[in-house]
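Hi V.,

Quick status before I head out on leave. The structure for the redesign project is tokenized and pasted below; the design run finished overnight.
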């Protein structure tokens, strides 16, 4: 590691930001020694804000129908090889009941943009989960909707919303999405969610097709402006039934390096070690925690549908039962010196009011 790289990491550690050129040099010139130093600094900020706690989120993938045709996504509308499913309200509540017994206090209801689930349906489901488990947080991740929809779900009890911005460059966004989707609308959604009062999660793919270092730096600067409560990043992994089937996958190495940078830029953010990271590297989630991440999302979906919610090829844990995922993740977290935190795990700015 040269002196410039060490100085850049130190500056990030102290100030939480860097100018574009030093940030580009840090990313493009990274090596193993620099990464180790970055992760060491990231763990300092991680432990200052969260101790040795890692938060569990129970993921329930309740529909793989989607009205969109994003070029990278395995559940895209035009994929005729995708075996579609929808969970019923009873199915979702049963997943939450099982998850609650396993110690989960946040449930993430994730799906494609399936318009068969109306605003009223999702209001009823959110309300039912909160009635059954009032000490739990409910997170929604169902894509781009109107401000009125977001407000209705928030009023029904939803606490958080996950919506990756995917890329902060509008021209790059257009290369990854069908023409009916726009960068402007994605940003509108994120700011509507913040304005309503959700704890908001954004994030991007790492090494998505056509992505450059400049794109990544623009992502980091966009996140600095948005100030989300959670940032989810993961490597791009191609799916065989998409136009990007032959594009190279992203790497765990760059994803981990960016996790370290994000922890220094956003010391109090909730930062997942994602399933995609665990898919690209068998110990990716453990390495993610050691790079500054502090959230993992075991799958609570019924085992019979897990293999059908495939945004990319090779996804791990598609055959496990919920209890297996819970025990597996606890053991993995402990193996790197951390402990599972059994709580809602709110973003710091929300803790007092909750």
């Amino acid at each position: 590691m040269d002196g410039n790289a060490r100085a850049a990491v130190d500056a990030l550690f102290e100030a939480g930001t860097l100018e574009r050129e030093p940030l580009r040099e840090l990313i493009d010139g990274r090596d193993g020694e620099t990464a180790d130093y970055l992760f060491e600094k990231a763990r300092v900020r991680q432990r200052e804000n969260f101790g040795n706690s890692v938060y569990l989120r129970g993921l329930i993938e309740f529909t793989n129908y989607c009205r969109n045709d994003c070029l990278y996504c395995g559940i895209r509308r035009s994929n005729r090889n995708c075996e579609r499913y929808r969970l019923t309200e009873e199915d979702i509540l049963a997943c939450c009941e099982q998850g609650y017994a396993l110690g989960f206090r946040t449930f993430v209801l994730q799906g494609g943009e399936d318009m068969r689930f109306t605003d009223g349906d999702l209001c009823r489901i959110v309300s039912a989960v909160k009635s059954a488990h009032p000490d739990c947080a409910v997170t929604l991740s169902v894509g781009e909707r109107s401000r009125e929809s977001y407000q209705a779900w928030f009023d029904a009890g939803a606490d958080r919303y996950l919506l990756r911005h995917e890329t902060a460059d509008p021209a790059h966004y257009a290369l990854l999405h069908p023409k009916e989707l726009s960068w402007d609308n994605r940003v509108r959604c994120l700011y509507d969610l913040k304005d309503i009062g959700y704890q908001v999660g954004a994030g991007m793919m790492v090494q998505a097709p056509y992505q450059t270092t400049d794109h990544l730096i623009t992502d980091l600067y966009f996140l600095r402006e948005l100030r989300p409560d959670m940032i989810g990043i993961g490597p791009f992994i191609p799916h065989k039934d998409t136009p990007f089937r032959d594009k190279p996958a992203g790497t765990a190495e760059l994803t981990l390096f960016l996790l370290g940078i994000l922890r220094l830029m956003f010391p109090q953010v909730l930062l997942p070690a994602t399933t995609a990271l665990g898919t690209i590297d068998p110990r990716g989630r453990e390495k993610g925690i050691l790079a500054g991440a502090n959230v993992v999302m075991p799958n609570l979906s019924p085992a019979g549908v897990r293999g059908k919610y495939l945004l990319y090829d090779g996804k791990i844990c598609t055959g496990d039962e919920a209890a297996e995922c819970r025990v597996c993740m606890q053991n993995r977290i402990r193996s790197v010196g951390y402990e599972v935190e059994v709580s809602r795990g709110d973003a710091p700015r929300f803790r007092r009011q909750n």
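Above is the designed sequence. The CA atoms of residues 42 and 292 lie 5 Å apart.

G. will cover questions while I'm gone.

Best,
W.
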